[in-house]
Description:
Layout: E1 3-8, H1 17-26, E2 34-38, H2 41-49, E3 54-57
Antiparallel strand pairs: 1-2, 1-3
Helix pairs in contact: 1-2
Amino acid sequence: MEKIKIKQTKSIIGQPERQKRTLKALGLRRLNQVVELEITPQVQGMIRKVSHLVTKVD
């Protein structure tokens, strides 16, 4: 399967608890952390929900 790298670029302070849990489920724990994930419909949906907090890394 294809992989995607995402980086947390904004803080979760002040964000709803649901978005905090989504970032945790994606494996992001701190600012500027990069994770590589397989592209699945579930992962794409989670990324879409927190798209304002993360960016795609090439």
